[in-house]
Design goal:
mainly alpha
């Protein structure tokens, strides 16, 4: 038998061919988010904090949608590996219905109760007023956002990673251009400030949905399904199997994202400057997380296809490869963030105190890239693609609500500085990695959930 290295060329080529388009899409989105914060920074700490609070609602929406889509992608990827297109379409139908329901709830909240939602995260009346104004506008785009988001997942699960990337690039390019025009009043338009940023975001999201849906159906891609294909073959056994696997993922993301959102509430107890610092640091941090996220998504797709084809031994082998590869990338990103953070922060116009807090936050966040890399592979890449969704739900949820959230509020109420509260938050990822790695090594995460579905 010929000798093959642990990271074979075939494995690396497959992993990075999927990961890089996803990472590029995330990088562009995160880069534009950073540009938004830089532009809004010229309006002051209040506007940065207001957008940060409003974006917590969007953050919750996207993570619940991620739960809906990620749960569905377990089936879509394995059905695709089994070459069962009808099963892919049935799964998409359930995913679209759930996405519509979730986005309607968030739309109602954003349009009719924006002040109440923003006041969860800040006690500053100006932050609440500005944040509510922003949220009311962007909330109108939540439903189309839900459909473009889930369509992107369906594309990736069936091997088409380029279309979501291209439509995302178009969307963020539109958002950036419109931000410059509407925030500062260029080309004869009035300077709308924060409201201009919200309008630009809403327009860009509508454009993204329009383009991705048009291309999917005009080009008759594999996921271009009609209403009968999507909703005409629901039977009790399929739905029971689907929700047994997917419901823990949806519950996982809902509870986890709500818990993470509570971190912002804890940071808000430290003042508007702390909220502004968290918004800036979080935006920069996302730039350095994109390749790790891309590889985790690639892991989920590749492992799902391999399990669906019946090769569980190959899935286990590739799982170990991803467990080794992604943390290596985490170490590289950690070093880059530490070196580049002073340069990156020169673009932001904020108070010296906010700048110093942000510098400290980014240093700590850099080191947290390594355990986060492990956790993304364990939960998103392996447990979910392998159908081990209940374990992933329990691990993800308990570490947030039983460990990190209580410690974050304890630190904030004891008067810890921002970096001290963040260290309390970090307990989530440390505990998760310690518990999760043995689960992967045990192979108990491997389940073929579509083997006997006709």
């Amino acid at each position: 038998m010929p000798h093959t290295s642990f990271f074979s060329k075939t494995f690396l080529k497959s992993a990075f061919s999927i990961a890089l388009p996803i990472a590029l899409q995330s990088f562009i989105t995160s880069g534009v988010n950073m540009i938004d914060v830089v532009m809004l920074g010229r309006l002051g700490d209040v506007d940065i904090a207001a957008v940060g609070c409003a974006n917590q609602i969007y953050f919750l929406l996207t993570l619940v949608l991620f739960g809906v889509s990620s749960g569905a992608s377990v089936f879509m990827a394995q059905f695709w590996g089994k070459q069962d297109l009808g099963g892919v379409h049935r799964t998409m139908g359930v995913m679209y219905a759930l996405a519509l329901f979730v986005s309607l709830l968030f739309t109602v909240g954003a349009l009719f109760f924006p002040e109440q939602l923003i006041s969860i995260y800040s006690r500053d009346p100006e932050v609440i007023r500005h944040g509510a104004s922003y949220l009311r506008i962007v909330g109108a785009s939540y439903i189309v956002t839900a459909f473009s988001y889930t369509m992107g997942f369906a594309c990736r699960a069936t091997g088409n990673v380029r279309l979501p990337m291209i439509t995302s690039i178009m969307s963020v390019a539109t958002n950036t251009v419109l931000n410059f025009i509407l925030i500062f009043g260029l080309l004869g338009f009035p300077a709308l400030g924060l409201r201009g940023a919200a309008i630009a975001t809403a327009i860009a999201r509508v454009l993204e949905f329009s383009v991705i849906s048009l291309v999917i159906y005009r080009n008759r891609t594999p996921i271009a399904a009609g209403l009968i294909q999507l909703f005409g073959r629901f039977d009790r056994d399929f739905l029971k199997r689907y929700f047994k696997t997917a419901l823990p993922v949806l519950l996982n993301e809902t509870l986890w994202s709500t818990g993470v959102s509570m971190y912002t509430v804890a940071y808000g107890l430290l003042g508007t400057g702390a909220l502004a610092s968290v918004q800036i640091a979080g935006t920069v941090f996302q730039l350095f997380l994109v390749l790790i996220r891309g590889l985790s998504d690639a892991c989920a797709i590749m492992i799902g296809h391999t399990i669906g084809s019946g090769d569980e031994e190959g899935a286990s082998r590739d799982g170990l490869r991803f467990m080794a590869l992604v943390p290596i990338i985490g170490v590289i990103m950690c070093a880059l963030l530490i070196v580049l953070r002073p340069l990156i922060l020169t673009f932001f116009t904020v108070t010296p105190e906010t700048l110093q807090m942000t510098m400290e936050m980014l240093c700590l966040q850099a080191f947290m890239l390594i355990p986060k890399a492990f956790n993304m592979v364990i939960i998103v890449g392996l447990c979910r693609s392998g159908g081990d969704t209940l374990f992933a739900c329990i691990l993800d949820t308990l570490t947030v609500w039983a460990v990190a959230v209580p410690l974050a509020f304890l630190g904030a109420n004891l008067g810890f500085p921002l970096w001290g509260v963040y260290l309390c938050v970090c307990s989530e990822d440390i505990v998760k990695a310690i518990v999760g790695v043995p689960r992967i090594l045990s192979k108990k995460w491997l389940h073929n959930v579509v083997a006997d579905i006709a």
